[in-house]
Amino acid sequence: MHTATNYYLFSLAVSDLLYLLFGLPTEVFLYWHQYPDLFGMPFCKIRAFISEACTYVSVFTIVAFSMERFLAICHPLHLYAMVGFKRAIRIITALWIVSFISVIPFGLLSDIQYLNYPLDHSRIEESAFCSMSPKIVNEIPVFEVSFCIFFVIPMILIILLYGRMGAKIRSRTNQKLGVQQGTNNRETRNSQMRKKTVIRMLAAVVITFFVCWFPFHLQRLIFLYAKNMDNYLDINEALFSIAGFAYYVSCVQCDVTSLQGCVQGTPLRKSRGRLLQQRICEGSLQFPGKLRLRPRSFCSRQSQPASK
């Protein structure tokens, strides 16, 4: 735990582990025995609470981690000014608290539900299952709020952050290539390849986030607003499998997103280093006490073109 990144990775690991422990065994068991529910009301509420909370923690952590990357590439001086483990710990603690508070309605509203006989509307005891009451879901917009706050807004933020990072890397690389005209062609090609690799990785984060989380929220929205469709049962059955698979793959996606920071760490550090070098040589790097740092030997050495 020597860097702020490791704290974010640890937070993701804990949330994913809790999510898998409380969610995956139950889902697998339901494929063999769905009715009646054997775990009871307390486990139903705890499972709904923990699973939803860990999901929100993962989403929030991805957004916070993306913000760290954005600052590292686009505003490295601000990041260095805020560097410190305590800041990362405070952010992660706040993410967990907000997530657990946000899922209180899911824990309170989840209960053992029953199907009813068509004739006398008496409940079928053998049909017990853990879920939220359809009547409550229609009256309280918990799914709609969850979709907006924990998918739409994070998705927009991730697109904006990674789009800005990609534009910054492309612009910085193009400036470097302009300075290096007439120098070694191999260095130019390597710089272009590094730029394309980083941009592809940034785009992969956005696409993977959408693919993993959209089916889950889509299934909830179709349940609310499209139950009268002629082929609703077929669509719901297909989405149930797709959303369930993507829901648990999202745990892997969270870790891959974090590990990706290590894979692309060298290009990102180089991009951040080049910007810091430029600020130092321009004399725009401000330190406490209005001290400006501009080592002449370093800047003169960096300004020399590479030998052919």
Automatic annotation (TrEMBL):
Pfam families, alphabetized: 7tm_1
InterPro entries per UniProt: GPCR_Rhodpsn, GPCR_Rhodpsn_7TM
Keyword vocabulary terms for this entry: G-protein coupled receptor, Membrane, Receptor, Transducer, Transmembrane, Transmembrane helix
GO molecular function: G protein-coupled receptor activity
A GO cellular component annotation in the UniProt record: membrane
TM spans (from-to): 7-26, 46-67, 88-109, 142-162, 198-216
Intracellular or extracellular location(s): Membrane
UniProt family annotation: Belongs to the G-protein coupled receptor 1 family.
Name of the molecule in the record: RT06905p
Species whose genome carries this gene: Drosophila melanogaster (Fruit fly)
Classification lineage: Eukaryota, Metazoa, Ecdysozoa, Arthropoda, Hexapoda
